[in-house]
Write the structure tokens for this entry.
Amino acid sequence: MLIKIVRSSEAREALLKDRWPLRRGLDLGLLKYAELIIEDVKRRGDLALLELTEKFDRVKLTTERLRVSQEEIKEAYGKVGEEQISAIKAAKVRIEDFEKQILAHSSFEYEGGGLRIRRVYRPIASVGCYIPGGGAAYPSTVIMTVVPAKVAGVPRVVICSPPRKDGEINPLTLAAADLCGADEIYRVGGIQAVAAMAYGTETIKPVVKIVGPGNQYVLAAKNIISRDVPIDFPAGPSEIAILADEKSDPRLIARDMLSQAEHGVDSISMLVTTSLHVANMVAEELKRLVEGAPNREVVSRSLERNGFIVVSESINEAIELINAFAPEHLEIMAENAYDLSERIHSAGLVLLGNYTPTSLSDYCLGTSHVLPTNGFGQVYSGLSALNFVRFMNIAECSSDSLEKLSLTAKVLAEGEGLLNHALAIEERLKVEFGEKKNN
């Protein structure tokens, strides 16, 4: 396994050309393919789901088995260990606590001169959470999507996840879904799952928003249905960038790059450093570790295809490249990490120091691991309870405040030619102050 070591000035164009904003839109062939499947589900409903699940997942289902039953959820608990259940509960509590703080700090009240405005939030009616599955289990993604929705107060949270070859959803995923409060669970995945949640079928009622990560097909489906149903943000293959200097530990850097590569062959693992010595040490460490690494084939292919070590002339150049790249995860393993983080404006999540690895944030740090990728960290935030609420302003004006503000409103209304706006205000002034003068 050979990982590329390049100079920042040489790497910039290659690293950024396929990322937002330089690259806009998905492959047209992929979008057309996804559109055909979505239209099929819209037209034929459950029947299309059954046929597509048999075609893509090699699983033959009946309409009755699309939804996971309560009995199946109970049976799932018997197939997972107590230690796993405890881990899910512990991660859930940390996510809940952090999400509650987010909401608590998002509402406030403004008062001044007889005017009061309250900023309040209300939950959306329903949400669909896409949970990758099939050959793997992702209970952590259940936690990261369902818990913020429930903290926000969403009354109906739906999960769709592709079945395994035996027609079941991994029991760990089911247990996590139940513990986190999911209301409905369906064994359907891919483009067809996104279509079903967006437009509904005989069995799956539509939701008003869809969130969650997935492969390129899921991403294409979310892109298409976003014309009708809001989504969280575009989320493709996972990414890590590590900012390091001459004092950074090559062993820790290599381990974190390996852990990221484990997500799949399309995952991006990148080191940006000001030290050529550290760059060479990390490359050697990766070469050594890959030989005995778990999931060696995936890790090796991922690093060969999408592994980069970039050497920058200065920390300023390194930060400029990282902000342009906008990685999903950014680890700052350099001196003065906190001060450096103040200069980062484009990243899904920033992790500081030697003791905050991305793998911790994937599970139980308290922050969500559902984050913008492919450069969209420049314009999107990571998933949180804020994705599941909408905000309203509730305003109340006293008569004295109305009088003070009336001239400003009247001048602007008349300037726009909306004279009835001005008259609506004048009428109130007549009623309030005219009657007082008469008395």
Q: What stands out?
A: Residues 31 and 220 are 6 Å apart (CA to CA).
